[in-house]
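Hi team,

Filling in the usual template for the complex we talked about on Friday. All components are listed, including any nucleic acid strands or ligand strings, so the model treats them as one assembly.

SUBMITTER: L.P.
PURPOSE: interface mapping
COMPONENTS: two
RESIDUES: 755
SEQUENCES:
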Amino acid sequence: MPHVLISRKKCTGCHMCELACSAWHEGAYEPTLARLRVTVNPTTGEIKGQTCMQTACHKCQDVCPHDAIYTKDGVLYVDETKCNACADIPEGPLCVAACPYDVIHIHPRTNKAFKCDLCGDGEPQCVAFCQNPHVLAVTLKADRADTVTA
Amino acid sequence: MALEQEGAVDFYAGKVLRIDLSRKTTEVEPLNMDWVKQYIGGKGLLLRYLWDEVKPRLDPWSPDNPMLFVTGPFAGTNVSTASRLVVGAKSPVTGIYDDSYVGGSFAPEMKFAGYDILIVTGEASEPTVVCIKDDVVEFRPAQQYWGMHTSQIEAALREDFDPDCKVISIGPAGEHELPWACLSTDQYHKAGRGGHGCLMGHKKLKAIAVRGTGRVEVGDARAFLADMRRMHSEYILTDDNLWANEEGTPILVQLMSDAGVIPTRNWSQGSFDGVQGINSEAFQKVRVRNRACYQCAIGCRQFHEVGDVRGEGPEYETIALCGANCGVGDIGALMKFNQLCDELGMDTISSGSVVGLAMDLTEKGIHDFGLHFGDIEGYLKAPELIASRTGIGADLALGARGLAAKYGHPELAMEVKNLELPGYDPRGAFGMSLAYSTSDRGGCHMRTYPIGDEVLSGNMPADSMEKKPWMVIFGDVANGFIGQNFSSIKFSLILCDFWAVTPEQIAQLLRHAWKREFSEDEVRQIGERIWNLGRLFNLREGVEPDTLPRKLVEEPFKEGPSAGKVIGWDEFQRYQQEYYKLRGWDEKGVPSEAKLAELGVDVRL
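RESULT (copied from the run log):
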C-alpha cells in the first residue's frame, strides 16, 4: 500500500514538499492547498508531518455518503463527479471531519474534496523535492509497482 | 489572470502595502515595475524605494523615516535559499542606509498574503502590533505584549491572532531603543545589524504578524518544478554547499583561530587559547537536530542543547565575538549568552564587541565595569543590563564607539562607521581591510569576502594587497570569491550566501522570471548598478570617510600566526584609491557621471 511518510526526526522543516505539491496540483505556489502538511514550532524545533496513509487508513472512504472516494492500486482518489462537498449533509463534509491527519479538504475553487493522489503516475513531487542526501525525510513507503503486482 | 490585468509579471505579487502607524491607516499601491526591471527585488529594489522614500538628510529618528520589508522574486517558490527578507531604513546608528537580511519564513508568507514590499512609516502613540491576513490589516494595541521576549511574542501572536502566522518582532532591547537591537523572526533568525530593532522600538511597533493564503504564480509550474529539481541536484546539493548542512558556520572557528584572524580579547590577539571548547567539534557533541529556513534544501541551522539551554545556533560570528573576543571558551556559557541576546532581541556581533571592550577597559584599569575576560558571572549578567540600560548597561548601551569615547580611549573601539566589526581581523587577511572600509553599511563581512580566498582556499596571499581592490569589487563565485557587485545582485534575488551560486545560475533563474534572455554580463552590470545607487544614497545622506580603526592598520600582533603583519596607512590608502579608480569614482569615492550613465543608474545627486 503506497503512501508518503515524513520522518519528524529527519525533517528540517523547509516546506519544499508542500511547495512542490501545490505547484504540481494547482499550477502555482499555494501551500495552503498542499496535499500534505508540515508544522514547525520554531522555538522548540519540533516538527510534525501529516500525510495521507491511503488505504492503510481509508476513514474518508468509510464515511463518504456519496461513494465519491474510490481505491485504485492501493491509492484513494476522489471521484469529482460524485463529490458535492456534502452540500446535503448538515454537519458539513464528513471526510474532512473523519481524517485523522487533516489532509483531505474542500477545494475553494472547485468545491470538491481534494487529497494526495501521489501525483498521478510519476514520482510524488514531495518525495522528489526532499533531495538533500543527509535529510531524505519525505519518502514513499511501498512501491506502487509492487502493489499492482501483489 | 487577475495579476496580468494589473500589469504584474509572474513571481511578483505586484503590490506594496503602506502602513502608517501615526494615522493607523494602510494603503495598497502597485509595485513599480520599471524599478523592478532595473533593480530586480531585495537589495536593489529596497535602495531604489529608499531613494524616493527618504527625504535627503532626513533625521533617522523622524517619524518619516520609513522601515521597508522587501522580498525577492523567488520567495514562496522551490528556489532554494530564496526565502530571505531584507529590512532597510536610514540607520539611526550609521546615518546611512542599512540593509539587513534574515531567513526564516516571513518573506514567503508576505508573498502569499499578496505583497512584495511593506513600507512602515510614522510612530504609534502606544505599543502596537500590526496583524496582516491577506488583504485585511489590523492595528492592535500591544500593551500586554510590551516587555515580552522574542519567543513569547511569537507564541502569543500564534495564540491571539492566527496559529499559522509568521512574526517579525523586537524584544526588550528594541523597546529600550538599544542601538544594536535587532528584529527576530522564527525566533532565532535575526535581521541583526544596523539598529532596525531600535528604530522599530522608537516607532512603538512590537511586531508585525502576517498570514497569507494566496499564491505565487510562476508561469508553467510543472516545467519550473522540473528545472528546480535539476538546479537542486546540479548546483545546490553539492559538496560546495553541503558543508553548511553537515557542520554549519562553527566550522570556521578553528580555521580562523589557526589563521590568526579570530578577534580575541577585544581584538588584542588573533588566536584563542580556549578555542577547543567552542569549535565545530565541541558543537557537534551537543547537536540535537538540523533545521532549515523556509524553501531551503540545504538546512544549515543547527539545534544545540547544553544543560537547560536548547536552541538554534550560535553561528560563527557569535562564537567569535561573544566567545573568543570575550575570552570565553565555555560552550554552556556561550550558548546561554547567545540565548539571552536572542530572547532580548540584540545583535550578537555588537553585543560581543561591546562586552569585550568593557572587559578591556576594566583590565586596563581605565574603568571598572566588573567584567573580566573569561569571567562567566559578569558576562552572563551583561545582556539583561544592556537591554534595559540599567547599571553598567547604561554605559555599554552607548555602543563601542560611544563607550570608548566616554572613557577617553576611542582607539579601543573596533567599528567602521559606528557599526561594530564582525569576526575577521584584517591583520591576518589584508583584503578584509578594504572589505570593511568600503562596505556600504559600515563594519560588515557580507558585501565581499576576500578572506574566503585569503584563508579558506588559500588562493590569495593573506598579507599582500596585490589584486585585492579588484577582487573586492568584481569577484564572483565563478572566479572563486565574492565581490560587492556580485553580492548586490545575489541579495536582490535574495539568495543566501550558503548557496555558492554563479552569475550563470543567477541568469538561469532570471530567465524564468523575465521570460527573456539574460546574460552573465547583464547580471554583473545590475550588481554594479545597485552598488553605485547605494553609494549615491550614502553620499547624499553624508557618509563618513572610508577608513578603519587605527589599531588594525598600525599595530601588528606580537605573537601568533599573524604576528608582525600590518597593512600600514600608505598601503591602505594607495589600494583604496586604486579601488575608487577601478569603480570609476573620484578620489573621494564619488561616482563619475560617465560611470552612472554607463550603468543606467536612474538618479543623480
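MY TAKE: The CA atoms of residues 259 and 494 of chain B lie 31 Å apart. Chain B touches chain A through 48 residues (CB under 8 Å).

Thanks, L.
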